[in-house]
Amino acid sequence: MFHGVPMISRWRWLLRQLLQKLWVVALLYTCLGIGTAFLAPAIGPFLPEGLGEKLGSGAVESVLSVLASSMLAVVTFSLGIMVSAFTAAAGAVTPRTTTLLKADRTTQRVLSTFLGSFLFSLIGIIALKAGVYSDNDRLVLFAVTILVVGIIVVAILRWIAHLTVFCLMNDSISKVETAARLALEQRMAALEGGIAGLVGAPPSDAEPVAHPEIGYLCHVDMPALQDVADQFGLRLYLAVQPGSFLHPAQPALWLLRDGTGQQTSAREDFDPCLLTDALTVSITRNFDQDPRFGLAVLTEIAERALSPAVNDPGTAIDILGRAVRLLAPWAEQRSVTLDFPRLWVPPLHVADALEDVFPPIARDGAAIFAVQIRLQKSLLALTQIAPAIFGPSAILQSAEAMARCRDQMLPSELDRLQAVSAAISQAADTGRARPI
């Protein structure tokens, strides 16, 4: 069964995007420093008299000075490493992966920890230089500083371990695969399980609503659309999917008034902006709700690996295996709960997903037998998993791949490829494939 992420509102989605920013954790450390500076004089009087002097609270200024100077150097060095890694990944993998690499949680938390501890140290030094702390007050600041030092040690160890794999080919591919899998699960579990599927055109009397911006649809706030539909008695038919290119001359959705809403008598109160505001448009495609973008980026990595300058068919073979793993759950049974009964969306077609993956690899690997045999066996695997779902599209992709490589293979290689291609057709017809 799919365990997809439920469709989230636009504000929760924006909050999640915000929490991926580098400065968020740094801001928390700054708040810790400011809070400690104000709370230390309030806590200090409750400690036993002379305890701060006995426990060496006078060393806190020296420790904070060391932290402030060292963390600034560490932050600068780490940022240099990160930028170099992003540049290397953009050249060796694809520039589209940098979005995921910049959102890497370990990198963000480590760098935020370094930057935040630097800010904490500065605030602590400023508070000490103000001369308003007693020995017990310094002890409170000293205790918090020791806690921060422990956090820094853990962050450094995590950073060292993370640098051994960060931005390498396998790490970048795995991040893209994970993003594509999450988007596909969300698309199937939420969009198809929570609303009605739209097959064919919307009703002829439906009114088109265009989005005023030009760009790619990256997020659909389904709860907000459902609320507007309930309020004004509408049935909404989404004309595009996340990842589609929008412009003012193209309908983003269609609305049909059914006269059952809470404010059906006040048609003049309805503003189409209530609908378009629920659609977030960006200048670039986004992985979150766009599974086809994840598949396309994986394919782009394989294409680059198959280029004469790189000549790395092993990566393309790896991508084909990951594509099978991503697409196979399409055949799983999913429970349907109609969470958004007034919304219809276009279905996500298997043929489109296979079109995103297999033709580019078949074209660029037309002369490489290892790639072609893996491509055919990948199509065979999908057909064996779900003949009715994958069979028709797999037969088409198999035939096109054979046509691309027919003039570039040895007769014995063509015979082996043709045997797998024939097995795909048989599996689609009978539900099982003969041994190869």
Please tally the helical runs, counting DSSP H or I stretches of 4 or more residues: 16
Helix content: 55-70%
Distance, first to last CA:
30 Å
Instruction: Assign the structural class, choosing from mainly alpha, mainly beta, alpha/beta, alpha+beta, or little secondary structure.
Output: alpha/beta
User: Radius of gyration, rounded?
Assistant: 28 Å
Low-confidence blocks of residues:
1-7
The helix/strand order is HHHHHHHHEEEHEEEHEHHEHHHH
pLDDT averaged over residues: 82
Structural domain tally:
3
The amount of beta strand, in percent, is: 5-15%
Quick one: overall form?
flat
Largest sheet: 5 strands, mixed
List the strand order in the largest sheet.
Answer: 1-8-4-6-2
Number of strands: 8
Give structural notes.
The chain has helices spanning 10-19, 22-43, 51-54, 60-92, 98-102, 105-129, 135-163, 169-194, 222-232, 273-276, 291-306, 313-327, 350-364, 369-385, 387-405, 411-430; strands at residues 195-197, 207-210, 215-220, 234-238, 245-246, 251-257, 279-282, 340-345. It has 436 residues and is α/β, with parallel strands linked by helices. It folds into three domains: 10-167, no CATH class; 190-282, Aldehyde Oxidoreductase, domain 3 (Alpha-Beta Complex); 291-335 and 348-430. Strands 1-8-4-6-2 form a five-stranded mixed β-sheet. The longest helix is centred in the first third of the chain and has 33 residues, at 60-92.
